[in-house]
Amino acid sequence: ATPAVPVGAVEPSDPAGDSIDLKESLAVLRRHLRLIALVTIATLGVTAYRVHRQRLRYEATAVIRLVDARRQLAGNLDNSAPTAPLTGAWTDPIQSQLQVLRSRAIATSVVDSQPLGLRVQVAGFPARLIEDLALTVETPADTVWLAFQDHSVTVRVGDESGVQHVAYGTPVQAGGLRFTVRGRPPGAVSRGYLYTISESAAADLVQSGIRARQRDRTDVVDVSYTATDPYIAQQVANAIVLAFQATNAERAQQQSRRRRVFVEAQLQQTDSLLRIAQDRLSEYRAAKQVYGSDAMLTAEQTGLLNLDVQRQELMANRQVYQSLLAELPKRDGAARQKTLRALVASPGIADNPVVQSIYQQLVAYQTALDSLTTGRWALPAESPDAQRLRTLITGAESQLVDAVESQITSLDARIQALDELRARNAAALQQLPATQAGEARLVEQVESTQRMADELRDEYQKARIAEAVEAGQVEIVDLARPPYAPIGTSRRTRLLTGLILGLLLGTGAAFLVERLNTAIRRREEIESYLQVPGLAIIPRIASSTQPRRLRVGHVSLPLPPRRLASRANGNSLVTVSDVQSTTAEAFRTLRTNLIFSQAVQTLRTIVITSPSPQDGKTTTAANLAVTFAQQGMRVVIVDCDLRRARLHHLFRLSRTPGLTHLLLDPQHPDGFVRATGVENLFALPAGEIPPNPSELLGGAQMRAVVERLNSEYDIVILDTPPVHVAADALILGALSDGVILVLRAGRTDRAEAQHALQRLAAVGVRVVGAVLNDPDHKVPQYGGYYYYEYETTDASEPERA
User: Fold this and answer.
1) Longest C-alpha distance within the chain, in Å?
2) Band of pLDDT at residue 783, cut at 50, 70 and 90
3) CA 150 – CA 512 distance, rounded (Å)
4) 234-281 residue pLDDT tens
């Protein structure tokens, strides 16, 4: 059965759906200050530890330009230079060069040229004090320990047998290292050491520290290196740009050298053909004794020879094309690329737009493949992208060969056309001397071959000039300078960030804990979840001896100072020891709500209980009894918590004789009920602990005792054990007019309170309402608990009207 609700029934509401305002948010933070402080301190500690452990890092920057200086130095004669242009349609050449800058080859070259800070690590002192460092063996040496004195340094490798005392500035050989110490480190540094790492690890260190950034809309690149020592950062940054410049120039020279060798071979072949043609012409003239002809014969012969020359050129081109095509399957790799370039650069092919377009695609695919398979982020050769590019390269090469074969077919057609034209001209020249025609043909062959030789000789000179140029595409604008300040965020800023982050995390943890907490904290939650009225909120009991003043509007009324809690009642009886306190006022509010309720006529016997222990039910029962007595009613309070009796401590009474004696030996209650020192208030202690409290309280004698007390006193208050501890509250609740449930704010779980109400309702107990005990300030304060606040005054302060 559902218990009756005699006091101010309230419609249920859902406080969880209400928005949390600023005051309640501040209250949440106040309740969890310890958690917020703990999380903040932990976060700040972790941040401080990381800041302390993290070494400062310095960044040095060198500036380079990526320009084609080779053509400028060669006087723009190298028009066919094989170096890649700095602009392209499919790739960004500058970014490609930057990938080469970050490549493993450049890193290894830097490690070989600059061992300090890479293969040889310095710890404990500035690296600038080490000079002329060199590794004398390939294997890593032992750790070299250094101890600095005023005028010398002690060097030790391994055990004590490897100790050397060397003056500053003197070369020293220690383990696998040879170096010179310039002087004593500044400050109080007295020790340090050197140790070596593998070449592969040093190269990884270089690659991880390189930063290359192209400036917007320029060919200028900033090359930076980051290290824990400013001197090392400067030295390695400079070594990187110098190694990149040397490698780029060497590669450009190798390309020019390969072109010069190819042109030289073609020139030698052409010179040989020229000598053969000249010898044939001389032999023919000597044999036929041909010395000249008239103008008509010369013109006819010249026309015929021109046809022969054109046919010869076409045949020579065809021969070159077929020769290069025949060589192409026999070669691979660089040799195949060289043959393809020679084929594309051949006379006749170079003017074919189809061939040039296919070749440009081939070059683009090859460049993309090189970018994918080289550099720091190189993909493996078996990757899908690399395989796709290789397929595209093979297809482009096949298209290029088909285009050249089409060119050869076109040459065959032109040769056939020339043959037909020459046949017609030969018919016209049947009347001319055959000797003169033969002479003209040989002369044209000599002139044609001579022209080819002259062109190849010009190309050969250009190739030699390009090969002699030692510059590449890298121009150093500025070398790196020693950085004067570390990079990154300052330590103070990091600590401040850690503090702010800790506060945010702590605040989030506080709201999370608050969200997960299902305890009752507000009066509205009583009415929402328990469906019973909230009779009062009892704040913390605080003692004070200072004089106070009651403030009503603008009027301040003097009040006597609070009395110290007497030994007779202790601080828990705040309605006696501090009648002007907000806590005492809360108990009086509770009394008023009960007196002026609609159930006042029938509410004579009241049971005070709680769902669980430590909820403050005994203190609430005692103070409520005092307030009823102060109202002029005859009140008796009975300690029915036979297992853990406390009322005799509050009122400083003897525990025996008490309720158990009265129940076991029925007598008149007047012999056991004792005065408490509070007018109109009497108390019946618990007595000795019986073996069966529940059976004793549930007997007929207890009902008779309650009826007798109810007839002699205006109010009977029964202090019972918690509902979830024993069945005593259920038994006595059935004998009473109503039950008041005491809840502790922030501690009593909603489910426990609901279960307690269900147990009371199951035996037909009437629940009058609930009291929210708030000793830990868990309830949000809106207007100071709705009570007057008393002003504390100093004894020396004059009273104000």
Assistant:
1) 174
2) very low
3) 61
4) 999 999 999 998 888 888 888 888 888 898 899 889 989 889 988 888
- Looking at residue 86, its pLDDT comes to 47
The structure tokens listed for 451 are 């022209």
CB 626 within 8 A of CB 682: no
How does DSSP assign 487-520, residue by residue? -S--HHHHHHHHHHHHHHHHHHHHHHHHHH--B-
Which residue type does 191 have?
A: R
Report how far residue 17's alpha carbon sits from residue 640's, in angstroms, rounded to the nearest whole number: 40
Strand order in the sheet with 548-552: 555-559, 548-552, 790-792
Dist CA 69 CA 81 (whole Å) = 12
Between 650 and 794, name the one with better pLDDT: 650
Query: Both tokens of residue 612?
Result: 């669980």
Strand order in the sheet with 144-148: 120-123, 191-196, 144-148, 152-157, 163-167
Nearest of 552, 703, 535, 531 to residue 620 by alpha carbon: 535
Q: Spell out a b/e string for 264-283, using b for 16 or more CB atoms within 10 Å of the CB, else e.
A: eebbeebbebbeebbeebee
Positive or negative, the Cα torsion across 605, 609, 614, 616? Answer: negative
CA distances from 239 to 119, 236, 261 (A): 14, 5, 33
Phi then psi for 566, rounded to 5 degrees?
-75, 160
Spatial distance between the Cα atoms of 494 and 524, rounded to a whole number of angstroms: 44
How far is it, in rounded angstroms, from Cα 337 to Cα 342? Answer: 9
Q: Do residues 9 and 599 make contact, with C-beta atoms less than 8 angstroms apart?
A: no
* Residue 174 near residue 162, CB atoms below 8 Å: yes
**φ, ψ (nearest 5 deg) of residue 589:** -65, -40
Residue 740 CA from chain centroid, whole number? 56
Q: How far is CA 682 from CA 303, 573, 622, 666, in A?
A: 151, 14, 11, 19
Instruction: Return the closest-CA partner of residue 638 out of 615, 617, 622, 619.
Output: 622
CB contact at 8 A, 256 and 476:
no
Separation of alpha carbons 671 and 549, rounded Å: 43
| Better-predicted residue by pLDDT, 369 or 198 | 198
Compute how many other C-beta atoms are within 10 angstroms of the C-beta atom of residue 363: 19
**Is 222:422 a contact under the CB 8 Å cutoff?**
no
- Per-residue CA distances from 285 to 282, 442, 445 (Å): 5, 10, 14
Q: What is the distance between the alpha carbons of residues 335 and 484, in angstroms, rounded to a whole number?
A: 51
Strands 144-148 and 191-196: antiparallel
pLDDT at residue 705 above 60? Answer: yes
Helix axes 333-345, 384-428, angle to 10 degrees: 40
pLDDT at 298 over 80: no
Would you give the distance in Å from CA 645 to the centre of its chain? Answer: 60
Q: Does the structure show a pLDDT above 70 at 138?
A: no
Q: Tell me which amino acid residue 159 is.
A: D
Residues sharing a CB contact under 8 Å with residue 212, sequence separation 6 or more, in sequence order? 98, 101, 102, 221, 222, 223, 224
- What order do you get walking across the sheet with 177-181 strand by strand? 130-135, 177-181, 171-174
d(CA 30, CA 667): 54
The pair of structure tokens assigned to 38 is: 């703990």
Torsion of CA 382, 388, 391, 393, to 10 degrees: -100
Check whether 425 has a pLDDT greater than 80: no
Burial of 292 (0-12, 13-18, 19+ CB in 10 A): exposed
Q: How confident is the model at residue 427 (pLDDT cuts 50, 70, 90)?
A: low
HSE, side-chain direction, 13 A CA sphere, residue 526: 28
440-463 average pLDDT score: 87
Q: Is the pLDDT at 469 greater than 90, yes or no?
A: no
